[in-house]
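Limitations
The structure tokens in this dataset are predictions for the assembled complex, not deposited experimental models. Users should treat interface geometry with appropriate caution, especially where small molecules or nucleic acid strands are included. An illustrative entry is reproduced here so readers can see what is and is not provided.
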Amino acid sequence: MDILNNVVIGFSTALTASNIFYCFIGVFLGTLLGALPGIGALAAVSMLLPLTIGLDATTALVMLAGVYYGSEYGGSTASILLNLPGTPTNAVTCLDGYPMAKKGRAGVALFATTMASFFGGSIGIIALYAFAPFLAQWAIAFGPSEYFSLMVLGLVAAAVTQDSPLKGLAMVVVGMLLGTVGTDVDSGVARYHFGLFELRDGISFIALAMGIFGVSEILHSLRDAGGTPEVQNVTLRSMIPSREEWKSSRMPTVRGTVIGGAFGVLPGIGSTVATFISYALEKRLAKDPSRFGHGAIEGIVSPEAANNAGAQTAFIPTLSLGIPGSATMAVMLGTLIMNGIAPGPQLMMTHPEVVWGLAASFWVGNVLLVILNVPMIGLWVRLLRVPYHLLYPAIIILICIGTYTIRSSVFDIMLVLLFGVAGYWLRLLRFHLAPVLIGFILGPMIEENFRRAMLFARGDFTAIVARPLSGVALAICVALILWAVYRAIRPAQPVSA
Amino acid sequence: MLKIDKTDLLSGLIVLAVGSYFAYGALDYRIGTVIRMGPGYVPLALGLIAMGLGVLIMLSSLGRSGALESFRWRVVLPIVASILAFWLLLPRVGVLPATFVSVLVATLASPKSRLVPAIFLGVIIAVLIWACFVLLLGLPIPVLRSPF
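Predicted assembly:
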């Protein structure tokens, strides 16, 4: 049985002492950073990336994956206790989590989200083991046309799920343009290097990520930094849910897992949309929808389960096709490439220990999260009490030194500054920045596949459309774009949340 | 009076400008044909798409009103100066003084910062950074250097 074999390979890799250790470090630091206001999973992963230099590829990814879901978890803690979502995915948790905390049920809310996350995450991992090999097997037969179309679909999907699809598309294209900086693989011509030697290798994607997610985030948080937050005490005893709460959170957890798992697989869409959908679904199914927004436990467990199931299934396209489902996945792929491993469907054949070890470590990480968070909740609560004006200078230094150590390059610190200020400005203009990074990572791959596909097809674009899979993918793209344009020029829009 | 969403008008202009810059720059490289694309082909195409999107965003700003959010230079400038200081000092005097100065400058961005706690904060962060990155991880970072 292949799957069983993969599980064995995976756990024998994940359960080595050093991998468990780095997984623990990752989960711990991820929760720590995720609990800080204004630091989402993406910023946490890019900030801690330098710590993985010198580790072997599997261990580095294991640690970063730990950071990833640790920060998702920390973000939900901040949402519940402070009404401050660390990431858009946690925004939904605020809706009912914070009212629960105000009613004195913060402990229960935290415990319920931990359990829902664990359940969602575990099912997501099983889905990863079950489906990724099939997808990869199927993808071996893909040519450049298929890759081109699927990546374009991923980009378009990432763009149009934003609240302003046109601006999302624009950010994707800007990201792709930034991706063209540097030496062209085909001709060896250095493009847009401004005469700077450092730019001939292209823009460092860490500098870009740290700038647009780290520095711009700090600037944005400082804009509306309020007083020292009031955080209530959470004791272990207060975390025990009542029989009623236990019962009413079971089915929503399962439903959230299914929704999150399904949406997480789609490239570019990611778990944010899934959390909103699962919240809306619970509200519709509830006998008394008016409780929502006033501390309904269904309203936190379902999105949290969706979020974590999606966080795991997002690795399916990332690991089996080499197409990142979200900006965070793009950073993960970047880490693989930095370690000299080419992502793509052949990855499972050439490096099974990386793929399956990583998948198994997800589960180890989820167990660690439960162990870490239930007894240590007091620590995170205390952390949330540290005023922001003592935290942000440290975060700035971490960003600078982190960027510097990746290539030992002071030039990259300058890039961080540039992208940070530009990102802050774009954010004020209500642009979303995650599509920039997705475009930046996928752009060069799209260019390469497009050029190859057109060479094979002798310049005939219809040859790409004629292949069934890429034809369907491109048709969906066109439909999404038309819908986006329609939404943008349609007069009088209601303001969306 | 014509209603314009200033945020989206400016957004469109920026996208248009970035697109034109790259499209114009692409003309310096060989464009090639569809079959054998040169290094300029894809940047030119992307630049043109960005220009089109910029125009569409500007069009979408017509007919509804909206104001720009203020840039808040008082927050932005200290952070910029702080990163600049780090960039300037790290290779010249090492990570300890660079971190200290950079933290001090960064605290200017928040009205809640006071001088004495800021100095303590600078020392603590500098030592922690050194302990974590140099002592523990052994990364090749200059620690303390004479600028002369």
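Some entries come with short summary sentences. For this one: Chain B has five helices and no strands.
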